[in-house]
Amino acid sequence: MKAVVIKEYGEAEVLQVQNNVSYPRIEENQVVIENYAAGINPHDLYLRKGMLAPILDYGPPLIPGLDIAGKIVEIGEAVSNFSIGQNVYGMMDANAKFAKSGFAKTGAYAEYSVTRADTLSLMPHNLSFVEAASIPLVSLTAYQAIVKKVNAKQNQRILINGASGGVGCAAMQIAKHIGLEITAVCSERTNSFVESFHPSRIINYEHSNFTETREKYDIILQCQ
Fold first, then answer.
1. Cis amide leading into 136 (omega within 30)
2. How far apart are CA 72 and CA 26, in angstroms?
3. Could you give the CA distance from residue 54 to residue 216 in angstroms, rounded to a whole number?
4. Are 163 and 223 in contact (CB under 8 A)?
5. Do residues 17 and 37 lie in contact, with contact meaning Cβ atoms separated by under 8 Å?
6. Cα separation of 165 and 134, whole Å?
7. Is 66 helix (H, G, I), strand (E, B) or coil?
8. Average pLDDT value for residue range 199-206
9. pTM given for the model
10. What is the rounded end-to-end Cα distance, in angstroms, of the chain?
11. How many CB atoms are closer than 10 A to CB 86?
12. Taking 90 as the threshold, does the pLDDT of residue 98 lie above it?
């Protein structure tokens, strides 16, 4: 199969497209996905440069990519909640067992990828594959910060610095669902886009410095 492979750590030129990569092997709790879209995240940059090497128990050759969207083409014997032909998306992990260093050794930048079934969800019908593949990592990051880390409560005030980025967009939607009062910080160029999420207030960082105001917030989320 075809895949993007990192044979050594370095800059962008170490990314190589290969046509003879082995089809992924499957464990009983895993599925194989025919990939239609893959997300691009800072994690992929860190992996390529070797910045994650100290916490990994393996090295190159590696296939990067965490966020994935595609169709299930093979399922393990222990998988009961998915079936072949279903469209799914998620943040993949090729390890058969969860580990804190569980960054996928065989990632999403390939025609086919293997991941545990518990890393996936059925893809909503109103999303394209590209849209679905852009969601998992940034949304999980925002959810962990707002819900798990600070346990945000309705009517609290949150300032989201970097609101136009992937994590910022997810954070605004999660915060609105909880019922927070949202102040979004962005540039003039992205003001209209951020406005479409209907925050309570927008601060243009090119004109104002929120750290120099007397406004108080229960939560400040730094996305940059």
1. no
2. 12
3. 39
4. yes
5. no
6. 11
7. coil
8. 93
9. 0.86
10. 36
11. 15
12. no
Token pair belonging to 40: 């691009």
Query: What's the rounded Cα separation, in Å, for the pair 99 and 82?
Result: 23
| Cα atoms found within 13 Å of the Cα of residue 127, Cβ hemisphere only | 18
Mean pLDDT, residues 26-36? 96
- Residue 101 vs residues 53, 54, 104, 133: alpha-carbon distances, Å: 10, 10, 9, 22
Give residue-wise pLDDT tens across range 47-73. Answer: 999 998 888 878 899 999 999 999 999
Sign of CA dihedral 4, 82, 42, 10: negative
Do the Cβ atoms of 76 and 27 come closer than 8 Å?
yes
d(Cα 66, Cα 116) in Å, to the nearest integer? 12
3-state DSSP call for residue 152? coil
Kindly report, residue by residue over 109-143, the tens digit of the pLDDT.
999 999 999 999 999 999 999 999 999 999 999 99
Q: Please provide residue 106's backbone torsions phi and psi, each rounded to the nearest 5 degrees.
A: -110, 105
Beta bridge partners, 160, equal 184, 221
Is 214's pLDDT higher than 70? yes
What residue type is 179 in one-letter code?
Answer: G
User: What one-character DSSP code corresponds to residue 21?
Assistant: P
Kindly state the tokens that stand for 170. 């997810």
Taking the CA atoms of residue 120, residue 125, residue 130 and residue 134 in that order, the dihedral angle to the nearest 10 degrees is -50
